[in-house]
Amino acid sequence: MSEVLTRIKSRRSVRKFKPDMIPRDILEQIVTAGTYAPTGRNLQSPIILAVTNKELRDRISAMNAAVMGAQNDPFYGAPVVLIVLADKNCRTYLYDGSLVMGSLMLAAHELGIGSCWIHRAKEVFESPEGKQILSDLGIEGDYEGIGNCILGYVDGDYPEARERKENWVYWAE
After folding, report:
1. HSE of 36 in the Cβ direction (CA atoms, 13 Å)?
2. d(CA 173, CA 170)
3. What pLDDT digit, counting tens, does each position of 35-59 carry?
4. Does the N terminus or the C terminus of the chain have fewer Cβ atoms within 10 A?
């Protein structure tokens, strides 16, 4: 089996992270992989907001928790959050952003970094506070939050794969 297929089969969502920051060169490789995700008509509608600032990371985490009515850290202690947003004026923005999320998680796994897709980016960045964060960072446009890709070094054992369900694939030959 090829290296790529092995990586795809072995990647898992991680929900327990060490607080150690990921080196910038590794983060840049992960982010670059996201920029090479396929997009409809190559319009490249998504953008990636790479959050390594702890104060901003904690603020966005609290906003995310508030959306779901929780007090816990929905980012599971991960020190980095890559927020994927996509231009709503592009017909394929949701699919484009989803492909970016997948590319980020696969690249992270390849580089020994744990990841997990955390939802509620849409709600967080539709809020006045979320819009203000984007504006303060110079991000202009009609963007929708697609997902939060949390990243960090795995604390503990890497999750095991569950058995694949029956009837996952139907062949029409």
Report:
1. 10
2. 10
3. 999 999 999 999 999 999 999 999 9
4. C
Per-residue confidence at 1, pLDDT binned at 50, 70, 90?
A: confident
DSSP 162: P
Within 8 A by CB and 6+ apart from 105, the residues are: 11, 115, 116, 117, 149
**Could you give phi then psi for residue 118, rounded to 5 degrees?**
-115, 125
Find, among 149, 150, 115, 157, the residue nearest to 7 by Cα: 115
Answer for the pair 127, 64: CB distance below 8 angstroms, yes or no.
Answer: no
Q: What is the pLDDT of residue 153?
A: 98
Would you say 63 and 45 are in contact if contact means Cβ atoms under 8 Å apart?
Answer: no
Q: Domain segments of the chain: what residues?
A: 14-152
Does the domain made of 14-152 have the CATH classification 3.90.228.20?
no
CA proximity to 85, closest of 148, 149, 144: 144
State the angle between helix axes of 93-110 and 24-35 in degrees (0 to 180), rounded to the nearest 10: 140
Copy the structure tokens of residue 73. 């850290």
What is the value of pTM for the model shown?
Answer: 0.96
Percent of the chain with pLDDT over 90: 98
